[in-house]
Structure formats: structure tokens, C-alpha cells
């Protein structure tokens, strides 16, 4: 990895961050007259902890990662945007990502006037490290990978990711939104060995808290400091912090539901294999299945009429003819299968 100072945009490196009232004081006090808050309607009349210290300590204990390696934000999308803003000079630099994959990498790049270079996955949606490295030029600052990948559902080969981390001098972001559903351990275990690695995770999937919008980024303390420097002062609300702490206290319940989802995924896959119009079911390490059918548009439209919504991925590169099916409750999955069994194309 290059020196962090050489990677960060010069104006960001030299930026003096905004200092809020709660940045300047945190601790115990009886009278708070520093932040121009309404003195009534406690407790939500008060600004939240801008650095989410209690929440990060809880995540630290759960993940066995020191708090200084943790950033929390408004979903993983905030971290995606901040990484691009911190490291990519608008109109000059670029990011490299894979396709098909999560669309927000490209959207965030375009929003920040940064070019997005997309490299198609190899056969079977496999990651080819050399193809990624060949797409890099002198203005490539960040590589985005998603593992397990969305919408394909598969884990990317760990050795190929390590090769990219070893030979690329910039920042490598690995989005692990679905890692809890996979058999592989998180790449957070490699943070010390790879100072250019940023790992994204979320409470939206396995933890069942998509509505509170809590995303996490794990990286070296230097990278985390840069993200904290340019984030909005109170980027995670008190309500979100409180609910996240409650969610994280129910790890055993999460694991039980996760096991149920994985069991249902297996049952749905088995049932889909019996349908004559299903051409291919791709292996999944996530809570969804990518399925190639004879007519994706007709299948999607038919399910909509039955009140069942899946994702039509027919227009996505390498996913022509595919629908993406999220694994629901047993009742929801049975309703889907019943509808598909009565469909005629």
C-alpha cells in the first residue's frame, strides 16, 4: 500500500473537521448548555454521541476488533460514499469494480464525478484478480468488491482477493453485507496484515434491522480517522444507536433465525429444480438465490399479479434471463412455490 497521506485527496488531508459540542465534551454532567438544544422533551432533545462510542464498544466485543478500527454510519452506503470522497479526486481519479455487482458503487462514483471502471466476472461469476489489476491505471484509487456478491450470491475466491490486496497500492473495499449467511469467515481477520483493506458490514441482513440504517466499516485506524473527519457531525441518530445496541444483544436469536433462513434456502432450491422453466440455479452464500428462467420478464410479471415481488435482473450484465429471489418465511416461500407451480408461459 502507498503511504496513506499520498492516497487521500490533499484538501481532505488538510481539512480541519467540524467540531460539534458533543465532540468537545463527552462524559457525565448535570447541566448541558453548550449545543443550543431544547431543554425539554428528554431524552431525544439531546444530540447523539457523534462517535457512537457505546455502540462501537459493543461491536468491538462482538467482532473482536478494537474500536479504533470501526466506523459506523447511515447504512453501508455512507461508507461507500465517504471512501470515494476521501480518496478520489473528482474529474481525475477512478474506481474499479466488478460486474454484475451492487449498483451503489457506480452511483456513488458518478455522484462524486469519479469514473467507474467495471470488470466482468469470469465464468461462474468467479473473480479474476489479474483482470481487475489489468484494469487499474495511475488514477485508480479504490477497488470495490462484494463478497458474497449481489446479485450472484457467491463468495469471491479469497486468494484472488488477497492477490488484489497485495499488488494494488490503493484502497480495496470488500462489501460483506451477506457474510453471516456464508460458511467463510470475515475478511476483518486480515485487517492488520492489509492496511489498504476496508471491510463493510451491516445490520440490514442477518440481523434483521434494515429499517434502522446502520452500516459498519472496518479498516486501519488511519483510514477510520479519515472517514470520521469528513462524515456529518451526527450521522447516526440516537434512536438508531439505541436500537442497534438492542439488536446486537440478541445474537442467539439472530443465529437461530439465520439457521432457519439457510434451511429454507435449501428447500426452495430443491423445489425450484423441479420446475420445467427453471434453466439454472446459481450456488448461493447469501439469503437469496439467483435463478435463470425461460422468460424472466414474464415470470416477474406473473408473480407481481399474484402479489409476490422478486427482483428482475434480466437487464444486468451476465444475468440475462435471471430473477433474484430473497428467502422469506416458510409461509412466504410456500406462497412463491405454489404460484410458480401453477404458472404457464
Notes on the protein architecture:
The chain is globular. The protein has two domains: 4-249, Type I PLP-dependent aspartate aminotransferase-like (Major domain) (Aspartate Aminotransferase, domain 2, 3-Layer(aba) Sandwich), CATH 3.40.640; 252-341, Aspartate Aminotransferase, domain 1 (Alpha-Beta Complex), CATH 3.90.1150. 37% of the residues lie in helices and 17% in strands. It is an alpha/beta fold. The strands form two sheets. A seven-stranded mixed β-sheet has the order 1-7-6-5-4-2-3, sandwiched between helices. The mean pLDDT is 96.
Question: How are the secondary structure elements laid out?
Answer:
Blueprint (H helix, E strand, L loop, with lengths): L3 H4 L2 H4 L7 H4 L28 H11 L6 E5 H13 L6 E6 L4 H8 L3 E6 L8 H7 L4 E7 L11 H10 L3 E5 L21 E6 L11 E5 L2 H10 L7 H11 L2 H23 L4 E4 L6 E6 L2 H10 L5 E2 L9 E5 L3 H12 L4
Parallel strand pairs: 2-3, 2-4, 4-5, 5-6
Antiparallel strand pairs: 1-7, 6-7, 8-9, 9-11, 10-11
Helix pairs in contact: 4-10, 5-6, 7-8, 11-13
Salient structural properties:
seven-stranded mixed sheet; 11 strands; 2 domains; Aspartate Aminotransferase, domain 2; alpha/beta; Aspartate Aminotransferase, domain 1; 13 helices
